[in-house]
Amino acid sequence: MKTYPIIIEKANSNYSAYCPDLPGCVATGVTVREVKKNMKEAIELHIQGLKEDGLPIPRPSTGVVYLEVETSAKVSFYGVQ
What we know:
The chain is built from 1 helix and 3 strands. By secondary structure, it is an alpha+beta fold. It has a 3-stranded antiparallel sheet, with helices on one face. The N and C termini lie far apart (49 Å). The model has no long low-confidence stretch (mean pLDDT 92).
């Protein structure tokens, strides 16, 4: 068993998710719980398809880090504020 990270994004009326380590592996759902369930199924099907095609199964390699940033600071890009 492998553990793959997924990215969940809020859309207008639902959630979408993808797995950075499995390009093209995506899912949607009305709730976070549903998109997680759908993503688990999508990953399992994606891996099954890779196996059937005789392709290598990518190892999980994406790390997830949250950074705390100052949100009230003025940021300058290329000298423009």
